[in-house]
């Protein structure tokens, strides 16, 4: 990646650490998460600092603080499962949202230390960090929220299942190969398009400001996920496809600002008056 792309990716990671994760945690009714959210700056601040430090022990130690914060979230996934004993689609989505930031945390530690974890080069590790904040945490959480909001829609249940499945398939594709990653991208894209469609069709009548935020988040997904599919197809087949820099500036920025931030702000506006938050 070029220097400009690296800086843009770092800014997307900062947004994920400092705003997206805390906003999302406020939407999950799980004992103990409120405390994690209050203490989140203790992980997010050193995590952010690690991005601007040169690779080495200090950056690695700062990244490790953030990784510990993501691990604290991941621990709540089995605890929640033991408490609810539910594997309903929205619950699967929430469990995925709790667990996947730990992948980002591990990748951040490896990248800041200069260690090519599992043989992945540092650019791939750097891109894994935002991916598992947005495709891992945010996409799964929003899919669960949508499924709770319109439980009678079969498409909502499929979305709540396919978004986690697609995210995990993409992760598996890192190890198996480009074609497996393409399959994961296709499943994830289908799930996110369902989320966008249901949001646009069924959820935009919630007040003017909220409707705008939800409408933007739905519309953005139609474009950004098509770009993700194009990129994965190109990587697997050798066909022409966007560069990583172009993907960061379009797919990355669109998903971070247009989808993640807009959708979570919309659901925060809905939270005081609805019972549609995963629980």
The beta-strand count equals: 0
- The proportion of residues forming helix, as a percent range, comes to over 70%
Structural class: mainly alpha
**Silhouette:** globular
Largest sheet: none
| End-to-end separation | 40 Å
Uncertain ranges: 273-279
The figure for the number of domains is 1
Average pLDDT over all residues: 91
Total of DSSP H or I helical runs spanning 4+ residues: 11
Q: What is the radius of gyration?
A: 18 Å
> What is the chain-wise order of helices and strands?
HHHHHHHHHHH
What does this molecule look like?
The chain is an all-alpha fold. The protein is built from eleven helices and no strands. The longest helix is centred in the last third of the chain and has 30 residues, at 208-237.
List the helices and strands and how they pair.
Elements: H1 3-25, H2 33-39, H3 41-52, H4 57-84, H5 89-99, H6 101-113, H7 122-149, H8 154-176, H9 178-202, H10 208-237, H11 244-270
Helix pairs in contact: 1-3, 1-7, 1-11, 3-4, 4-5, 4-6, 5-7, 5-8, 6-7, 7-8, 7-9, 7-11, 8-9, 9-10, 10-11
Could you list some keywords that capture this structure?
mainly alpha; disordered C terminus; globular; 81% helix; 11 helices; 279 residues
